[in-house]
Amino acid sequence: MDNFQFYSPTEFVFGKGTENEAGRYVRKHGGTNVLLHFGGGSAVKSGLLGRVKSSLEAAGIAYTELGGVKPNPRDTLVYEGIRLCREKKIDFILAVGGGSVIDSAKAVAMGVPYEGDFWDFYSGKDPEAALPVGTVLTIAAAGSEGSGDSVITKEEGGLKRGAGSDLIRPRFSILNPELTCTLPPYQTACGATDIMAHVFERYFTNTTEVEVTDRLCEAVLLTMIKETPRVITDPSNYQARANIMWAGMVAHNNIVGVGREQDWNSHGIEHELSALYDCAHGAGLAVIMPAWMEFVYKHDVMRFAQAAVRIWGCPMDFSDPENTAREGIMCFRHFLRSIGMPLDFGELGAKEEDIPALVEKFGIGDGRTGGFVKLSAEDIAAIYRIAAAPELI
Amino acid sequence: MDNFQFYSPTEFVFGKGTENEAGRYVRKHGGTNVLLHFGGGSAVKSGLLGRVKSSLEAAGIAYTELGGVKPNPRDTLVYEGIRLCREKKIDFILAVGGGSVIDSAKAVAMGVPYEGDFWDFYSGKDPEAALPVGTVLTIAAAGSEGSGDSVITKEEGGLKRGAGSDLIRPRFSILNPELTCTLPPYQTACGATDIMAHVFERYFTNTTEVEVTDRLCEAVLLTMIKETPRVITDPSNYQARANIMWAGMVAHNNIVGVGREQDWNSHGIEHELSALYDCAHGAGLAVIMPAWMEFVYKHDVMRFAQAAVRIWGCPMDFSDPENTAREGIMCFRHFLRSIGMPLDFGELGAKEEDIPALVEKFGIGDGRTGGFVKLSAEDIAAIYRIAAAPELI
């Protein structure tokens, strides 16, 4: 196990009706003048935004609204948010929505006290300050409600890049599983895939002696394997939604990933897909993550065999562990298929002829990137090609 | 799953050499004038205390020493700590040691800003303020480095009672597994037993639909089952120590226990043993926890069968699940035996004739207490009797 630092100071408020506590928690965490950040119509139509506003008003908190966050949130709205926060002397940002809204809120939070261009933080610079952020989560997926991460897409050129800092971990996050019960099966499955990918990116590691985080990773995945099919067939199943919602947080606040080298290539490789085709991140991951596995599993057959046995319940083939490793990848694809996810470029609406452009945009040139296996541009092209025509299916 | 609130704002600094960062973290978390709280000679002799002092000095932080914390920490030293903190205008308490030192530090932290007797917080009162606490952990056991709990023994009458508040969660905790490598096998095993008990107290619940926390609980237990025997045979095994140390934190900061009714009767029933005989808490738990299981398992045979199958790898007896449930309890006892723990009153040095006095001190009168099974005074006596002469062994 490697040395690490772990800091997850977010106060989580979980359960039915908890969105009505938003005002109280903003006040508890020092907010008096809020930017209320949200996405499209669903938060308005469902009455959620109204309930949050009532709760802010009841707590005597002023607010300014900024809606319109889109999936794969854009830099353009972040600039508008920064301008608005400065103009209105905002001291707290409350994100009401899913990962996109929260990521946008985090970008605004870093941008407000910074004199330069906020995009600097998405180009490798560390922020020195940020406005406090709180969240009311509506989708179990990105894990942004408990993480110090944010991903933003630059409208010009479609660059999708991430930033990370403990400064943007939410001060509080309100998680009411009821709010996710109206999410249709496809979006639900996309979220579940994202959650599972967050764990797999941590699970495949070269760091040895990491039993505790291995087991914690497996715990989250086993939960997702049990609970996801239940919400696909019965979207309003509160209990299954609740298990998934907490699993989504645990998957990505890094408690299951500390002290081990991680690999985020699948996320990076997928980002180019969702940036180019504007597809759902989770759907893109369903295509890329198993393709990445298919490309790299020979690097550590026993780790993939462990995943197959412990996560997918495959019998261990002691005479040919590679067989078990492959079976695990196939189980993952079968699971993704069973919850309605695409498995290849065709189903996703991606085109094989775009692969050179996707690799070009990934932008590593002659370098290599990743943790578990360091990939070259050529390797990434190979993974896209597997994603276009998978074998272990 | 039940509604819950979860808040674990402690900054964890994990790995080799991290105790040399103590000064920097005290400063980061606002401390300038520290009470340096510790136990007996081992922290001094090992040079640890010297390194921590050097680190405080390097960071320009003043400190006042208060050593002498004993296992099962006493109220008398807490009163002295409170007096000292007020006199010296202490603004931060740094605990260097195991759970006893940290619990004592937490008691002092609550007592300083409080006009009344600090014991009020150990009699059910909620604190409204507390000095900030940081820790340098030397034993993987109590989980106090990440929890909002503290247990103190009142010297007069030997009452052992707990207090809990998010206010006493440490601001930072430094976890260097190297510091635990000198711990002898018996104390190591006591710590491991305490860690496992913290999980079992959460695992046995009447709350349904808790797959995510069930799986997380199992993850910690599976880790302990793998790693503990390694450090018993090879105390200086850094990697096994590291896995156990992080498991010990995860077991008790409540991330594996949220949203479910818990049962803390085994801890309560054990506390009377360690208060009366001054035995190690972990050794007491090795005797009491399986005895409690033996007494209650019929309340939910399938949950105990799940534990047996998922944690101990027992084959499921589909024609007689009770058989599987019992086998799981026996596996737990075999495991405890294998790491050198006592399994009954005789081995612990407890006496059957003291049972009425132990029950009397437990002090529930005609009431009932607990989560999974609500126990009467008579039930508690029965559990002590099982602990004196276990059957499932």
Key structural traits:
Rossmann fold, Dehydroquinate synthase-like, alpha domain, two-stranded antiparallel ribbon, 8 strands, 393 residues, 15 helices
Write the layout of secondary structure elements.
Two copies of one chain form a homodimer.
Chain A: E1 4-14, H1 22-28, E2 33-38, H2 42-45, H3 48-58, E3 62-66, H4 75-88, E4 92-97, H5 99-111, E5 133-137, E6 149-154, E7 159-164, E8 172-175, H6 185-203, H7 211-233, H8 238-250, H9 265-277, H10 281-296, H11 301-310, H12 321-338, H13 345-348, H14 355-362, H15 377-388
Parallel strand pairs in A: 1-8, 2-3, 2-4, 4-5, 5-8
Antiparallel strand pairs in A: 6-7
How would you sum up this structure, described in words?
Two copies of one chain form a homodimer. With 393 residues, chain A is α/β, with parallel strands linked by helices. Chain A has two domains: 11-179, Rossmann fold, CATH 3.40.50.1970; 185-388, Dehydroquinate synthase-like - alpha domain (Dehydroquinate synthase-like, alpha domain, Up-down Bundle), CATH 1.20.1090.10. Chain A is 47% helix and 12% strand. Chain A contains 15 helices and eight strands. Chain A has helices at 22-28, 42-45, 48-58, 75-88, 99-111, 185-203, 211-233, 238-250, 265-277, 281-296, 301-310, 321-338, 345-348, 355-362, 377-388, and strands at residues 4-14, 33-38, 62-66, 92-97, 133-137, 149-154, 159-164, 172-175. The first copy, chain A, has a six-stranded parallel beta sheet, sandwiched between helices. A two-stranded antiparallel ribbon of chain A has the order 6-7. In chain A, α6 runs antiparallel to α7, α6 (185-203) runs parallel beside α10 (281-296) and α10 packs across α15 (377-388). The two termini of chain A are 34 Å apart. Chain A binds chain B through residues 1-16, 18, 208-213, 215-216, 218-220, 222-223, 226-227, 239-240, 242-243, 246-247, 250, 255, 258-259, and chain B through 1-18, 208-213, 215-216, 218-220, 222-223, 226-227, 239-240, 242-243, 246-247, 250, 255, 258-259.
